[in-house]
Amino acid sequence: MSSKDNAAVIHQWLEEGWNRGNLSVADQLIDPDFVVHGAGGQTVRSGPEGARQLVAAWRTGFPDGRMTIDDLFAEGDEVAVRMTWTGTHTGNFYAYAPTGRQVSVTSIGIDRVANGKIVEGWGEVDMLGLYQQIGVIPRSGGSPPQ
Amino acid sequence: MPVSQNKAIVQRYIEAVWNQRQLDGIDTLFEENYTIHQNGQALAINREMLKQSIRTILSAFPDFHMALDSLVAEGDRVAAYWINSGTQTGELRLPDMPQSAPPSARTTTFAESALFRIAADKIAEVWYVSDRLSMVQGLGLISWAAR
After folding, report:
1. I need a labelling partner for B32 at 20 to 30 A (CA). Which of A16, A100, B49, B81 fits?
2. B123 beta partners
3. What is the pLDDT of residues A57-113, one digit of tens each?
4. Residues 6 or more apart in contact with residue B52 via CB below 8 angstroms
5. Domain ranges, residue A88
6. Interface test with B, best of A43, A69, A140 (most B CBs within 10 A)
7. Do A40 and B131 touch (CB under 8 A)?
8. Which of residues 29 through 88 in chain A touch B, CB cutoff 8 A?
9. How would you class B115 by CB atoms within 10 Å of its CB: exposed for 0-12, middle for 13-18, buried for 19 or more?
10. Would A143 be classed as within a structural domain?
């Protein structure tokens, strides 16, 4: 598959899975051996079930949440994506009860696609910023400037 | 500009500037003035500010190291993912910390992803997302208000 096809797989997963909540597409787009590295310390199980649970956690915590794709490009079988999750914390997000607060969280990831399925992902999401926005961590831990 | 050349620029930033402490490399790798977007916030900075930031990190973590895992490039952009690690044997002062943290001798390991825009062989804009949560947890700098 071309790098353009691989980019289209990521685009479809973000639009169908993350934005429309059509989690059954995971069976079509996520490889059985799918693994995630990073993800801000979230525990993500392998395979389509892990991907479904990850999206479900965010859509449960932020039912109006939307993943905006800020940049998306591919080189060979690797796809880079820069994105922003925005939503209102009106559901339980992991251990945290709803606060009604608006959040905006940035994320950058690299995914490897093989035979039309996402096999492996490396990415970071600013969980500290998110927890500060919903008020469960005080705004005192900054980031090293670069 | 071939993407391999753009990837080499990012690789030099990580390997030469950060890992080999060749801070002068910044003068050839970065535009004089550029913009960073860090965890969602935009900031106008310049080469000297970047050098000062790196010196601040290295004084807190003299053994600071970046292990580059992945580079993906297309057109004028390069995405990267790496693992930072360091032992905090010096005083640490982060931008929005009320006071600096005394040396803890703790080692922290945290992943980071970034996207670089390159113009005429120089880094012109960077988006960073680091796992700041793991970093501050690793250093024992966080109080979990909700736990």
Report:
1. B81
2. B30, B118
3. 999 999 999 999 999 999 999 999 999 999 999 999 999 999 999 999 999 999 999
4. none
5. 3-133
6. A140
7. yes
8. 37-38, 40-41, 71, 73-75, 78-80, 82, 84
9. buried
10. no
| CATH code, domain carrying A65 | 3.10.450.50
Distance from CA of B75 to the nearest CA of A (A): 9
In this prediction, residue A102 carries a pLDDT of: 96
Asked, for residue A106, whether it belongs to a domain, the answer is: yes
Asked whether the CA dihedral A4, A10, A13, A15 is positive or negative, the reply is: negative
Q: Please report, for chain B, the start and end positions of each structural domain, with discontinuous segments joined by +.
A: 3-138
* Complex-level ipTM: 0.90
Q: For the stretch B9-32, what's the b/e string if a residue is b when 16 or more beta carbons lie within 10 angstroms of its beta carbon?
A: bbebbbebbbeeeebebbeebbbe
pTM of the model: 0.92
User: Token pair for residue A93?
Assistant: 């997000």
Domain assignment of residue A145, yes or no: no
Q: What's the gap in Å between the CA of A22 and the closest CA on chain B?
A: 27
Cβ contact B84:B72 at 8 Å: no
- Chain A residues close to B129, C-beta within 8 Å: 106-108, 124-126
Q: Per CATH, is B3-138 categorized as 3.10.450.50? A: yes
Cα dihedral value B3, A80, A86, A66, nearest 10 = 120
B72 interfacial to chain A (CB closer than 8 Å): yes
Q: Which tokens in the block code for residue A88?
A: 């209102």
Tokens 């919903």 found at: A134
* Cβ–Cβ contact A144 with B under 8 A: yes
Write the secondary structure of B70-96 as one string of H (helix), E (strand) and C (coil).
EEEEECCEEEEEEEEEEECCCCECCCC
